[in-house]
Amino acid sequence: MGTVIQDIRQGLRRIRKNPGFAAVTIGVLALGIGANTAIFSVVNAVLVKPLPFPDSQRIVSVPHVPPPEIFPGHKTFSVSPANYFDWKAENDVFESMSILAPGSVTLTGFGPPEPISAAFVSADFFSVLGVRPLAGRLFVPGDDEPGRYVAVLSEELWKRRFGGDPAAVGRTFVADAHAYTIVGVLPARLGYYAGTRLWLPLAFSPSEKAIRGIHDFDVLARLKRGVGVEAARAQMNAISARLAARYPADNKGWGAAVIPLHEELVGDVRPALLVLLGAVSFVLLIACANVANLVLAKTLGRRKEIAVRTALGASRGRIVQKLFAETGLLALGGGAVGLAIARMGTNLITSFLGSRLPRVTEIRVDGPVLLFTLGMSLLTGALAGAIPAWRLTRANPNDALKQGGRAESDAGSPVLRSALVAVEVALALMLMFGAGLLVRSLGRLRGVDPGFDPTNVLRAQLSIPERKYPEAESQRRFYEQVLARVRALPGVESAGAINTLPLTDGGSTQPIAIEGRPAASLSEQPEVAVRVLTPGTLAALRIPLRRGRDFTEADTDRAPAVLLVTESMAKKFWPGEDAVGKRLTLTFYPGVVREVVGVVGDVKLRGLARVDPIAAVFVPHGQIPLFSMSLVARTAQDPRLLGPSVDTAIHAIDPDLAVTDLGTMEEYLGTSLSEARFNMRMLAVFALLALLLSAVGIYSVLAYSVRSRTREIGIRMALGAQGGRLVRMVVLQGMRPALIGLAIGIAGSLALGRLLGTLLFGVGSTDLVTFASVSALLASVALAACAVPAWRATRVAPTTALQEG
Question: What is the pTM assigned to this prediction?
Answer without folding.
Answer: 0.74
